[in-house]
Amino acid sequence: MNNQNVQRDNDSRIKDGLVIKPSNIRIWLHQKASGKLAKVIWAGQGMRLRTETSHHPKMKRFLECVPHVMGVIKDIHQAVVENDLDTLKAKTASPTPRIVLTSKDANGLTPLHKAAGLAHTQIVEYILSIWPSLSSDEDHTGKTPLHWAASAKNNARSFNLLVQAGADETALDHVWNMC
């Protein structure tokens, strides 16, 4: 494996231009940049923080919380897959910050991507009622929840909810855009 492939495997870029790689994580820990480190978790890359350490009390507490936050994210994603609206509501209730609904899994899918693709319309409706702009969020391949909704059978309701929330019906799936 050449250096370029290793570099690509160790790096991830998130929407706002942050490059998630081990050296940047260590820099952010040193700078006590908890906001950037939180974005690592929301981007589905929390496992990259599991091996990190810090002697600074604030960063040490942050890193100690990472497994718990990752567990909550996993529970939320699982509730969506299982179409369990009650569990989703319980896991996203206060004091849990609403930003947890923007969390991605390792494949870059948000709970809304999953709900839309699985035609779980009540969950789509719930998530959009809290965070409508998620209707335009892209996964790692460039697909929006609308793309996922369009690919599911009998999913006109989810599709329409996403469009009403502001999803762009003309957005191209980047996979097809490469052809």
In short:
This protein has 179 residues and is an all-alpha fold.
What does this protein look like?
With 179 residues, the chain is mostly helical. The protein has 10 helices and 2 strands. The model is unreliable at 1-10 and 174-179 (pLDDT under 50). It is globular. The protein has helices at residues 3-10, 22-30, 34-45, 57-81, 85-91, 111-117, 121-130, 145-151, 156-164, 174-177; strands at 12-13, 19-20. The two termini are 27 Å apart. The longest helix has 25 residues, at 57-81. The protein has a two-stranded antiparallel sheet with strand order 1-2. Helices cover 55% and strands 2% of the residues. InterPro entries: Ankyrin_rpt, Ankyrin_rpt-contain_sf. It holds the Pfam family Ank_2. ANK repeats lie at residues 107-139, 141-174.
Low-confidence stretches: 1-10, 174-179
N-C termini distance: 27 Å
Query: What is the averaged pLDDT score?
Result: 87
Radius of gyration, whole Å: 17 Å
Assembly form of the protein = single chain
Helices and strands, in N-to-C order? Answer: HEEHHHHHHHHH
Q: How many strand segments?
A: 2
SS class: mainly alpha
Question: Order of strands in the sheet with the most strands?
Answer: 1-2
Beta content comes to: under 5%
User: What spatial form do the alpha-carbon principal axes imply?
Assistant: globular
Number of continuous helical runs: 10
Largest sheet: 2 strands, antiparallel
Question: Helicity level, as a percent range?
Answer: 40-55%
Keywords: ANK repeat
Task: Give short descriptive properties of this protein.
mainly alpha; disordered C terminus; 10 helices; 179 residues; globular
